[in-house]
Design a protein that fits this description.
Layout (H helix, E strand, L loop, with lengths): L3 H13 L3 H14 L4 H13 L3 H14 L4 H10 L21 E2 L4 E5 L6 H4 L7 E6 L4 E5 L2 E5 L2 H12 L3 E10 L2 E10 L17 E2 L20 H12 L8
Antiparallel strand pairs: 1-8, 2-7, 3-4, 3-6, 4-5, 6-7
Helix pairs in contact: 1-2, 2-3, 3-4, 4-5
């Protein structure tokens, strides 16, 4: 029996480098060993999808759902494919953000390297330019695709975003780059709540510029962002709110 761990890694590597033909062959070989491996079925279906073989992708995601009806990756992609009528839509597998999403706008955008990454099997389903979701938690802000956990934002960004989200701010999140052990996203402010109506979400000294998304193979692994994001402003505001008035001494 082949080394399944090594084969899985090889299949993931092929997907992350965009070698979809090789990914199809590897995953088909893996299914000969274990036809009930849902992760392999999802990888194969996505490789079909990226190759434009829509009918094959639908059938394979359906097989994954037969084995695991609540699998987030298979559910999401099956839903996306439900309206696909053409047998081949190569290059249009997943909805992507508009080019304007990659324009850096001082105060409104921030590029962030995520932490606490999900397994590579989940990350390999992403594509640069794909829109994902923010999921605030008590002490964390997660990046998700539908209900599938992908990563978390680093502490410095989380600290501020939790307060901004609670105040009613809204954001768009777009995948900038993805690799086996990395995920970089672009956060874009869409609207502000009343409390922070006059306060930009992020501090920036650069002029507006275009930041193209990069394929994983040419994008180096990045460390979590430690650039100041204006948390000090919120800390000062909190201190002001918590400070009680001094008693007048007669």
């Amino acid at each position: 029996m082949p080394d399944s761990t090594l084969s899985d890694q090889t299949a993931i590597a092929a997907a992350l480098t965009g070698n979809w033909k090789e990914a199809i062959l590897i995953n088909l070989a893996l299914l000969k060993v274990d036809k009930t491996d849902v992760d392999t079925l999802n990888r194969l279906a996505y490789a079909y999808l990226k190759s434009g073989e829509i009918a094959a992708a639908k059938r394979t995601f359906s097989k994954a759902l037969d084995l695991d009806p609540y699998n987030g990756i298979a559910l999401k992609n099956s839903k996306l494919l439900s309206g696909a009528k053409r047998k081949s839509t190569k290059g249009q597998a997943l909805p992507a953000a508009a080019p304007s999403a990659f324009l850096e706008d001082p105060g409104k955008t921030k590029i962030v390297s995520c932490v606490n990454l999900a397994p590579a099997q989940s990350l390999m389903t992403l594509s640069p330019g794909q829109m994902v979701d923010l999921k605030p938690r008590k002490h964390a802000v997660e990046i998700r695709s539908d209900k599938t956990y992908l990563a978390a934002l680093p502490d410095d960004v989380t600290f501020k975003l939790l307060k901004l989200l609670a105040a009613g701010n809204t954001y768009q999140v777009v995948v900038k780059a993805v690799g086996k052990n990395m995920l970089t996203v672009i956060l874009r402010e869409l609207s502000r709540g009343k409390r922070f109506a006059n306060q930009p979400s992020f501090i920036s000294t650069t002029a507006t510029s275009y930041t193209p998304f990069a394929p994983a193979e040419v994008h180096p692994e990045e460390k979590p962002s430690v650039v100041a994001t204006g948390e000090e402003d919120l800390e000062e505001e909190d201190k002001t709110e918590e400070k009680e008035p001094e008693e007048e001494v007669v």
